[in-house]
Write a sequence for this structure.
């Protein structure tokens, strides 16, 4: 039996590849600080469970393929809150932002096509792009420049006749970089000039820490055909397990094509759409409290990381990740060692190893992405464990 | 902006294309008998809602990418009930059988590849195949032969060096054909001989009406590398809106590749996996009652259809669809007319028009698939409405 060359080209997720080794370590009684997955530890608003409790329907039928009206209305209302008027036809509900992205890429990419993505980027982007037969054209950024990429000449140098789109995450995963309104406008102008989609993954929209005026790409006029936004309830409401996300665009031709995908898989889940719609009723105080909490965590992780000799990292402005270069030969090997050979008082830690965050071969080998999704005391201890592990790993070699 | 040639080649679902016109008709006060979608009207077992009610977790986290342990165990237990021993690594949970199929096809198909599918087939198969860049090689069947296709010479005539798999639905959608154990063995032997996957969509497993000894492809020994089963809770438990399905295979290389897809979209929904796992606790009396009910419906629809002059159809042995040739020029045009110009005492009906059930151009133009998912009085009335509509449609032309 033969497998597709596309799936052969894909690897397991760097966030999840070591899950079996982690399970073994936990069975040995080792406690693991999980900094590998962007899984918030914040309590999910109770309204989610209250809505599930009330849900009852004699027949659990398919939802409409484009999305449940309640969910579409909740998204409209949320966006109207910062001045973005959406029609229901501008929104498709997916099984998480992940499926929203899968359906989008199926509409715009195929063999030989290219998509420009600033690197480091969320590794699942690369897997999804590979599965279409297209490839990522990386726009390399560096921590020394604060991972900034909105430079006309640099972006245009990545564009060729096979380019179909530019994809950005704002605020950035894994970098935490936040585009200024001017930078976002520049990206929009480049996309429009070259007749490209500008795909903005805005799932971390509520997570900025320095008072940056974060703009959604949907707030700019005159780019209706270019802008595509990926959104999700996962991070915003600490509801990753709901698997409810959105594809949003005013490009009706695009949405017409994406609807074909939606119809092909019939619908998203009924219960989770209802309960996710209810999540949007939480007040803005929820986000204010969350930002304060994450800011403390970011500051803690950054301070502790900078105390470890040889670690290089930038202050993230948003999202909840730190990308850091560690003084080790290979972060993937180091992770393997952390799960199989190391422990400090019965504890170890996990991160996402860096190479899959880059499309450029050889980059990111000694880098890691760590999610600050634990409370401050746990983060402090995790960073102490990391410091000891780095020392021991380098000594035993 | 340019779209992928693949998505351009896809159409809207024949089951859902007319949903907007249906909504308009309903707004005008017209009642529609929905025979277009395989959406059972049977009550969903209460245990689904009871499980949702009890579900509470401080943080709604991602489920494991391969599936929630509770769900995997429920599937293992169900299969063990008819002698199929599965390991958890043989099972991946998807967002419906639809996503299970999407991930499977991503693993085995790419540009230029072919997959053999007996036609008429479930139209979403073709859309999913097109999105991989591969194409359906149809194995044409006819109502005169009871839609049977398990003939070695006929199957082998469809296989060439680009063939990667044979895909069958058993019991058949839309044909209702049920493979005999000998026929299924023949299909397995052909697949094995030619080193192909045999993909068996068995979501209608519990729906057979004449006491046929229905076998799962997983019950045959010696085909472990070839057999892939698609399964789902949707039809079995009248739980279409849960969107929980399964990819099942003992081919570990395949499952390793499919896990990459699973990790890329992170996980399936937590609540619906828990509640779907609970559905498997219903006793066999549930299926016995359901079969009795659907058998009455099948017999009703068949009897009424055969009273309409010019209608040609075969008795379906399983699933809950009838494929019928109507005495009209074009079933798609007829459907449009039914929703925009026709009504009988304020009522009309919907079916799935036939052409998209075929890959061979020109076939199925005057055919329709009707799902017998309404109660007997409603089906009788719907068939009366159909008879009147056919007469009036042909008179006014």
């Amino acid at each position: 039996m033969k497998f597709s060359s596309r799936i052969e080209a894909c690897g397991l997720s760097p966030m999840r590849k070591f899950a079996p080794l982690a399970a073994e370590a936990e069975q040995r009684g080792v406690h693991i600080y999980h900094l590998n997955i962007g899984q918030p530890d914040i309590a999910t608003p109770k309204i989610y469970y209250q809505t599930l409790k009330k849900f009852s329907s004699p027949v659990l039928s398919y939802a409409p393929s484009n999305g449940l009206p309640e969910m579409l209305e909740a998204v409209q209302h949320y966006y109207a809150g910062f001045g973005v008027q959406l029609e229901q036809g501008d929104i498709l509900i997916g099984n998480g932002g992940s499926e929203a992205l899968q359906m989008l890429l199926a509409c715009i990419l195929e063999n030989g096509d290219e998509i420009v993505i600033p690197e480091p980027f969320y590794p699942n982007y690369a897997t999804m792009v590979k599965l279409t037969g297209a490839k990522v054209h990386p726009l390399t950024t560096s921590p020394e420049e604060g991972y900034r990429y909105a430079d006309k000449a640099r972006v245009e140098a990545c564009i060729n006749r096979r380019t179909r789109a530019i994809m950005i995450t704002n605020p950035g995963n894994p970098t935490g970089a936040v585009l200024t309104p001017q930078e976002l406008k520049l990206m929009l102008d480049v996309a429009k000039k070259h007749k490209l989609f500008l795909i903005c993954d805005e799932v971390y929209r509520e997570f900025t820490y320095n008072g940056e005026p974060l703009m959604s790409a949907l707030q700019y006029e005159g780019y209706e055909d270019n802008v595509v936004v990926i959104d999700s309830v996962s991070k915003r409401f600490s509801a990753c397990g709901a698997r409810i996300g959105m594809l949003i665009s005013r490009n009706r031709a695009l949405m017409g094509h994406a609807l074909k995908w939606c119809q092909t898989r019939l619908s998203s889940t009924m219960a989770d759409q209802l309960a996710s719609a209810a999540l949007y009723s939480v007040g803005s105080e929820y986000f204010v409290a969350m930002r304060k909490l994450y800011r403390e965590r970011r500051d803690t992780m950054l301070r502790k990381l900078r105390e470890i000799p040889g670690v290089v990292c930038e202050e993230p402005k948003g999202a909840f990740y730190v990308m850091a270069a560690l003084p080790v030969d290979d972060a993937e090997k180091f992770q393997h060692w952390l799960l199989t050979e190391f422990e400090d008082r019965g504890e170890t830690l996990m991160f996402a190893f860096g190479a899959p965050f880059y499309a450029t071969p050889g980059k990111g080998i000694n880098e890691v992405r760590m999610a600050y999704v634990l409370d401050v005391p746990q983060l402090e201890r995790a960073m102490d464990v990391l410091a000891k592990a780095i020392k021991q790993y380098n000594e035993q070699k």
Notes: The longest strand of chain B covers residues 163-169. Residues 99 and 245 of chain B are 8 Å apart (CA to CA).
